[in-house]
Amino acid sequence: MRFVQGRVKRFIACISALCLVGAMGVSLSAASSSAASQKSTRGGILQTAFQSDPTTFDPQVCYDATCWVNMEMMFNRLYDYEPGNTTLYPQAASSMPKISANKLVYTIAIRQGMEFSNGTPVTAADFAYTFSRICNPATKSPVVGFWTVVAGCTAYEKAPTGYVSGIKPVSTDSLQITLTQPDAAFVYVLAMPHASVIPTGTGAQQAQNPLGSGPYEFVSYTPGQAIVLKRNPHYWDPKLPYTDGVNEKLGVSPQVQLLELEKGQLDLMGDALPNSSYLSVKNSPTMKKELVQSQGLDTYYLTLNTKMKPFNNALVREAVSYAINRTSLLKYVNGQGTPATGFIPPGVTGYTKADLTNPLNVKKAKSLLKQAGYPHGFSTSMYSWNTQPWTNLDTALQQQLAAVGIKLTVHPIQQSTFFTLAATPGKAPMTLTFWIADFPDASDFFNALTSCAADIPGGQNYSFYCNKGVDSLVTQGLANPSKAAADYAAAAKKLLADNPVVPLYFGVRTGLSGSNIGNFVQNPIWDYVIDHYWLKNTSK
Amino acid sequence: MTAWLLRRFLQMLLVIFGVVTLAFVFAYIVPANPARMVAGPQASPAAVASIAHQLGLDRSVWSQYVSFLGRILHGNLGVSFALQGRTVAGEIWLALPYTAVLAFGGILWEIVIGIPAGIIAAYRPRSVVDRFATFGALLGLSAPPFWLGLMLIYFLAYKVSWFPLNGVGHPLIWYMILPSFTLGVGGAAFYSRMVRTTVRQVLRSPFIEFARLKGMPERTILFRHVLRHALTPVVTMLGMDLGYFLGGVLIIESIFGIPGVGQLAYSSISTLDVPMITGTVLVAAVFMVFMSFVVDVAYTFIDPRVRLNVGK
Question: What's the pLDDT tens digit per position in A253-280?
């Protein structure tokens, strides 16, 4: 779930979560499809703006909105997503990985002739150094959990010298990674921003003086004011980037970004369109044609604490699942979502078209409560963040549950407090929360949110739910990529039969580009892929 | 006088110590884990524990407090939890000039608008000017800064493009006109009412009547006698305003995208960046206490009666 800090702010400002489009169900608007037919240009400086400063430029640590977009521009990964979807292609690798028969050893050929922006060659040793940094506790990488599947990563945490034992540069252009168990999603982990390669020994400087091998190179960063990037003359793909540089203004609220975009002072809003401005933009004759909506890789849902009364009773959880009117809830988020049909959103392996959720049925909900021993309903508490759209949804859910006799006390609280309370056993009977996929594989949802391993204090399994049957289907899917979709779908069905979570809606990403941007597409993971955009008028 | 200054200085230190201690305590009694905020929600509990250890958060609060005090006494405000590799002092040092320009600008608007408006209104009570000033003051006092700021941006920066929409740049003064006006207009409204009242009181005093009888020109009466009396309380309050503004003015900084101390404090609270929270609180406390000290000292020079009381 890539947010925290800046990303959180961005989320609050927009409600629509980031991401998406997706290999399936992609709904790129006419704006982007017509862009593809426009003639490309080279040159000019793309102007954009963000509300928040990046907390770091260190790729192994980056997890906020501003640095996330910059990772795409300044760094390369072994694999990356095609601009408008979630299909991987070899970027710093020359081909997709060769995986051994036991699915544990990945042999990766590094693209030859690649250089960092300072002209030094990119080698397999740089990747070994980069990946070992993630396992080094001194780096404080938030994604180390994705890397503990690599042999030796956990041991490296205790003795961080040399490389992690499971990561070996076989030659200058060949890298070998050994896993402790098969993990079909690992190739996506190699495409996460944290896997962006940096030159050996430069870890300490990256936070403030980033050096990578991406299409743009770093020029300057003035806190609270601007980030300046210019074209990397050493970039391996001569086609990219289209513009000569990017100027990113900082400290600009999304509302002001919108005004600057209208005036032509910005080419692109760095932050998502504010929820409150959505209708006015949609009704504006000039702006509406620049509006691009696409399905998000995110699910908004309720958690019901299976270890707390009354939700330890499966009938009560089922009653809640029948009490929700999803279509009505969407009115509170300005239509920037679609009713959830399951726990896994479209675009993520494991999503099925079949509706796995229970439809609104007040009569059935009441009868289930009666059966559970609550003929007159009960009172309980629900926690959520204290910002939009949560506060709106809190009230709506309160009304919907009141209709079946559940008296809900809502507690909108600050995010940091929410994380602690929701993750403490016996504290939060219900939470209203969300998850944005880190990569398009359902294991990202199951492992973090509903697995037995996450059913611990401080984890993300706010339902404190543990079902070995669901876990084993997910493990099975991870071990066998060709069957993963079916296994995940079965896991989702089994999960929702128990109702530890009640999916509400899938997010829709709403993007807005200025009229001078050509080839505008949004990537499900990166959001913006600025190196692929050109300026229609390069002299502006 | 020296003993009084010394005592006042020690009191200042005590207040600063108390405020910073409270900030530290509040940051720790919040039921939230700063390491979780650093690590992100995806991080496993083991990774969070490892980060907590790296940040020294697994030590007892008492031991953390002692090392925190030790650091402060050595003039070291620490390293930010959230902003990787950046020192608290360095970040505050970068933010402070913008807050300072904004604060002095705000004070300037308070003086430039508030004092003349008050004087004119006092000299022409119930005239059109007075009523206009009263109406303006009411508007200035009741308009919330976030609304006023957005209106100014919309009409003066967006519609007619007289000013930049947002942020800071060169020349800085150009970027600071609207924010400092938004900051100062509320105070200006308040001071105009205050000056009006005090000037009217002074104008009714026998010594003013005497000056007029002597044939002293009205301008001399105003500058030599009226203002000297009427502005004493204003000067001291402006001093306190300056101390308050220098601590960071979050709403104005947010609306206008100014990278000042207020923004820094706000983002540190939302990320539970404890060293940055205590650092920004310390700066705000120092300015507030220092300005109140300056005001006290200045008062003893302005008003001899206060000076006479010092020795007692």
Answer: 888 888 889 888 899 999 888 777 888 8
CA atoms B217, B219, B223, B229: torsion sign: positive
* B160 Cα to chain A: minimum distance (Å): 11
Residue of A nearest to B94 (CA): A223
Min Cα separation B254/chain A (Å): 8
Residue B140: inside a domain: yes
pLDDT confidence bin for A5, thresholds 50/70/90: very low
Q: Which residues make Cβ contacts (< 8 Å) with residue A166, sequence separation at least 6? A: A150, A151, A152, A153, A177, A178, A179, A180
Chain B partners of A139 at a C-beta cutoff of 8 Å? none
Q: For B48, which of A250, A253, A458 is closest by C-beta distance?
A: A458
Nearest to B84 among A9, A58, A458 (CB): A58
**pTM score of the predicted model:** 0.81
Both B143 and B211 in one domain: the answer is yes
Q: Is the domain of B92 the same as that of B171?
A: yes
Confidence of residue A246 (pLDDT cuts 50, 70, 90): very high
CB-based contacts of A534: which residues, under 8 Å, 6+ apart? A40, A41, A42, A44, A242, A243, A517, A518, A519
Within the 201-220 window of chain A, which residues sit less than 8 Å (CB to CB) from chain B?
A: 204, 207-208
DSSP characters over B199-227: HHHHHTSHHHHHHHHTT--HHHIIIIIIH
Q: Are residues B253 and B127 in the same domain?
A: yes
Q: Bridge-partner residues for A505, per DSSP?
A: A300, A339
Spell out the residues 6+ positions from residue B268 whose beta carbon is closer than 8 angstroms to its own.
Answer: B80, B82, B276, B277, B279, B280
How close, in Å, is residue B39 to chain A by CA atoms? 4
Measured CA to CA, the distance from residue A204 to residue A223 in angstroms comes to 19
Number of domains composing chain B? 2
Helix (H) or strand (E) holding A505: strand A501-512
Are B130 and B144 in contact, with CB atoms under 8 Å apart?
no
Indicate yes or no: CB of B32 within 8 angstroms of CB of A414: yes
Distance CA A255, CA A262 (A): 11
Split at pLDDT 50, 70, 90, the class of B306 is low
> Looking at chain B, which residue has its C-alpha nearest residue A251?
B257
ipTM score assigned to the predicted complex: 0.72
DSSP A441: B
* Residue in chain A lying closest to B160 (CA): A263
For B146, the domain range is 88-311
The Cα of B11 is separated from the nearest Cα of chain A by a number of Å equal to 35
| Average of per-residue pLDDT across B161-172 | 85
Of A476, A405, A411, A420, residue with least CA distance to A446:
A476
Chain A residues touching B101 at Cβ < 8 A: none
B150 to chain A, minimum CA–CA distance in Å? Answer: 9
Q: Are A512 and A254 in contact (CB under 8 A)?
A: no
What are the chain A neighbours of B85 within 8 Å (beta carbons)?
56, 58, 204, 207-208
Q: Confirm whether B82 is domain-assigned.
A: no
> What is the per-residue DSSP string for A159-188?
S--SS-TTEEEEETTEEEEEBSS--TTHHH
Last residue of a domain, one of B46, B76, B106: B76
Measuring CA to CA, how many Å separate A173 from each of A94, A112, A124, B260? 9, 7, 5, 47
Select the residue from B44, B160, B263, B270 to test the A interface by mutation, using most A Cβ atoms within 10 A. B44
How many A×B Cβ pairs under 8 Å? Answer: 159
Alpha carbon distances (Å) from A348 to A247, A345, A351, A445 = 33, 6, 6, 10
Put simply, whether B254 touches A (Cβ < 8 Å) is yes
How far is it, in rounded angstroms, from Cα B154 to Cα B151?
5
Residue A27 confidence (pLDDT) above 60: no
